[in-house]
Amino acid sequence: MAETTTLPDNTSDFGDYVSNEDEQLDLEELVEPWHKYDITETSNVFYPIDLGELLNERYLVEHKLGFGGGSTVWMAHDLHDKRGVALKVMCLGDWGGKRIPHAG
Ligand SMILES: Nc1ncnc2c1ncn2[C@@H]1O[C@H](COP(=O)(O)OP(=O)(O)OP(=O)(O)O)[C@@H](O)[C@H]1O
């Protein structure tokens, strides 16, 4: 017969990375809201970037640095200049317009 595990009440809804409601709220502030990736939810949708993706045949995306109201920011390796760069990828939509990675 299969064993069932009962989680303590305060951990049942929060997955593996947080153990209580305070940590859940901290995590929600750090992680961008999923609706920002859903074009049916917002006209200023985040462009979905894959780790390892090559942008503009030049910038190899390594990891995410952060996000703001109108962009996501990624650590990338510039294959042309052979250096690390931060890429800001603007939202699609009214402010972003086109997806133009900005190396800085
Ligand atoms: N050059 C950088 N190096 C490392 N991290 C960066 C860099 N630029 C931005 N970030 C990270 O990305 C996050 C978002 O950047 P930024 O605030 O510039 O975006 P934004 O879309 O203009 O924000 P908002 O519209 O909310 O002002 C920053 O909080 C920071 O964590």
Describe the protein's architecture and organization.
This protein has 104 residues and is mainly β. The chain has a domain at 44-93: Phosphorylase Kinase, domain 1 (2-Layer Sandwich). The chain has one helix and five strands; from the N terminus they run H-E-E-E-E-E. It has one helix at 21-30; strands at residues 54-55, 59-67, 71-78, 83-90, 102-103. The protein has a five-stranded antiparallel beta sheet, with no helix packed on it. Adenosine-5'-triphosphate binds at residues 65-71, 73, 86, 104. ATP binds at residue 88. Keywords: ATP-binding, Nucleotide-binding. It comes from Penicillium vulpinum. This is Protein kinase domain-containing protein.
Q: What's a quick, concise take on this entry?
A:
Keywords: ATP-binding, Nucleotide-binding. The chain is mostly beta strands and 104 residues long. The protein contains one helix and five strands; from the N terminus they run αβββββ.
Would you give the CATH topology of the domain at 44-93?
A: Phosphorylase Kinase, domain 1
Compute the number of strand runs. 5
Shape summary:
globular
Name the CATH superfamily classification of the domain at 44-93.
Phosphorylase Kinase, domain 1
Bound molecules: adenosine-5'-triphosphate
Secondary-structure element order, as H and E? HEEEEE
Helix vs. strand class:
mainly beta
**Helical percentage:** under 10%
Highest CATH level, the class of the domain at 44-93: Alpha Beta
Report how far the terminal alpha carbons are from each other.
59 Å
Arrangement of strands in the largest sheet: 1-2-3-4-5
Output the radius of gyration: 18 Å
- Proportion of β residues? 25-35%
